[in-house]
Amino acid sequence: MDKNNRSDRKNDNQAEFTARFGCGFIFGIFLAIALGLLADAPTVATLLGIIFISAVVCGLLSAAFGDKFWYWLRFWL
To answer: pTM of the entire structure?
Structure first.
């Protein structure tokens, strides 16, 4: 019985990480597009690089810090 309980918690943690990372990743894409277009990126490759880096960073920060990341981001923007 206890073994099933542990696997449920592991699945819950994995699902929470995936959801938080996914939301942060999507937000990072939109943030990078807005900033890249405002900064007038010289090439499409540069813009795609900025988008990818921003998406991964926002995804990891969101997964690591959770609600604290979104709270901090709300006041930063």
So the answer is: 0.79
What is the percent of the chain with per-residue pLDDT over 70, rounded to a whole number? Answer: 90
Q: Is residue 21 very low, low, confident or very high in pLDDT (cuts 50, 70, 90)?
A: very high
Q: Is 23 exposed, middle or buried (0-12, 13-18, 19+ CB in 10 A)?
A: middle
Domain boundaries, the chain: 2-76
